[in-house]
Amino acid sequence: MRHSVSRRTRVAAILTLVTGACFGSANRNPPRNAEPLAPATITGRWEGTYRASTVARDGRFRMLVEPHGDSLAGWLDLVGIRVEPGRAVSSGASGDSVRVPLPTITIDGVRARFQSASYWDPGCGCALRLDITGFVVGDTIAGYFDTMGTALMASERGGRWRAVRVR
Prior knowledge:
- By secondary structure, the chain is mainly β.
- The chain is 13% helix and 48% strand.
- The chain has helices at 7-23, 39-42; strands spanning 44-52, 57-68, 71-79, 93-94, 97-108, 111-115, 119-121, 126-137, 140-148, 159-165.
- The longest helix has 17 residues, at 7-23.
- The model is unreliable at 1-25 (pLDDT under 50).
């Protein structure tokens, strides 16, 4: 029996392979073509997507990184987080996004690390903190993140993300 594979499925498979080749596997090593970082390399506005095994969801985000004296800081807007029925809602959720402060952003060689302040996540109805690591290739930054919160199981911490510079 011959199975036909749609063009859309083939294109999605190719994009997955190419993205994996550029940004490495889930083993958390930097990709071979990751660029050495400087503050200007990651400063700006970014838009992207994430896949979070922690709270079993995919989503979009916007991120701003800007200089603050001798350091970098910014924010992350998690877009379109649905409030699960029966979950508590906090004043941190407004409109279609949750703003997450990124008070600590550090650069180490090819690795950028973004540490968030604690925030209320309406999807899980719990307080979380993010430890995000990214690597830059061209105008794309991608990597992995870990989520910390008392309501989370140790084996369910984190996911993958990818963003492109928009400004």
